[in-house]
Amino acid sequence: MLTRARDEDVPCKILGRGANVLVSDDGFDGVVVRLDAPAFRRMEFRDHHVEVGAGTDLTALTRICVRRGLAGLEAMAGIPATVGGAVRMNAGGRGGEFSDVVRSVRVMAADGAVEEWPRARCGFGYRHSRLDSCIVLSAALELRGDDPQRVRARFESFLSEKQRTQPLAEHSAGCVFKNPPGQSAGALIDRAGLKGAACGQAVVSHRHANFIVADRAATASDVLGLIDIVREGVRRAFDVELQLEIDVWHPLGEGSLV
Ligand code: EPU
Fold first, then answer.
1. Is 74 in the pocket of ligand 1 (CB under 6 A)?
2. What residue ranges do the domains of the chain occupy?
3. What share of the chain is helix, strand, coil (3-state, %, to 5)?
4. Using a 6 Å cutoff on CB, does residue 143 contact ligand 1?
C-alpha cells in the first residue's frame, strides 16, 4: 500500500496517539496509517531486554516495566504516545529521553526495505531523530533491573510532578515549542506575560505556558493563530525565535513520508 502511495505520489503519514500532532482544519489529503494490528503491539521480554512493536502504548509498556522492576522508562510517565512516536520524536523530559534505552530500531525505509538500525544510526537528539523518512516498526530496548518499589517510586514522582505543573487533564498537543538551548520555552512565554492569551477557543495554559489548551469548539486555525501570537510576543520580549515541537499536518502533506 505504501509503495503504491509513493508510486502514485499520494502523501502518507503514520499516526501514533496523535499527542504531538495538529491537523489543519482542511484535513490531510493523503494516506494515514495506524499501526494498531496485534503484530505491532507485541512486547517480548528477555531478562532486561524487551522487543516492542511500534503501535504499543507507551504508558502500558512503562507500567509493565515498573511492575517487573525494569528501570529506564520512568521519565515517560504521563507521555501519551505509542512506542513508534516516542522513538521518532525521542520523547522525554528532564528525567531522561526514550533513546536512553534504545539498542536498535527496525524500520521500513522509504524504498520499502525493512532494516535494523543500531542506535548510533538513528541520530537521536533533543526531540529529534533521523527516522523521519522511515516507518518505525519495532524497537529493541535495554532496561536495568532494580527493586520494583524503587522503580515505582520514581515513576510516581515523575507523574505527580507533571500533574502538578502541566495541564494533563485538558485537551492539548503537549509542549508546543522546543526549549531553546539552555532556556525553557514555558518560562519565556510566561515571562512575556502570555499566560491566558487566547485566539478563538485556544488559550495559553495558566498551569504551564508551553501548553495551548483547547476546548472542543477550538479549531486548528485558533491554535495556529495563537502560536503566531506567542512567537511574536517572545520574539519581541527576548529576541528568541521559538521552534515548533508539534507536528503540523497540512492538506497537501508537506514533510510527509512518501
Ligand atoms: N516555567 C515557568 N512558567 C511556566 C512553565 C515553566 O516559569 O509556565 C519554569 C518552571 O518553573 C521551571 C522551568 O520553567 O523553572 C522549566 O519548566 P518545566 O520544569 O516544566 O520543564 P520544561 O522545560 O518546560 C520539559 C519538557 C516537557 C517535560 C518536562 C518535564 C520540552 C519543551 N518540555 O518541560 O515535555 O514533560 O520538561 O520533564 O522539552 C513535551 O515535550 O511535550 C513536554 C511537555
1. no
2. 35-164, 179-242
3. 30, 25, 45
4. no
Q: What is the pLDDT of residue 255?
A: 54
CA distance 17 to 84: 10
CA distance 251 to 104: 33
pLDDT of residue 153: 97
Which atom of ligand 1 has the smallest separation from the CA of 178?
A: 32
Say which CATH topology domain 35-164 has: 3.30.465
Ligand 1 atom at minimal distance to the Cα of residue 184: 23
Q: Using CA positions, which residue lies closest to atom 35 of ligand 1?
A: 93
Ligand 1 pocket test: which of 163, 210, 240, 242 has the largest number of ligand atoms within 8 Å of its C-beta? 210
Q: What pLDDT shows up at residue 254?
A: 61
The CATH number of 179-242 is which of 3.20.20.70, 3.90.78.10, 3.30.379.10, 1.10.10.10? 3.90.78.10
All three cell numbers of 94: 528532564
Low-confidence ranges of the chain (pLDDT < 70): 253-258
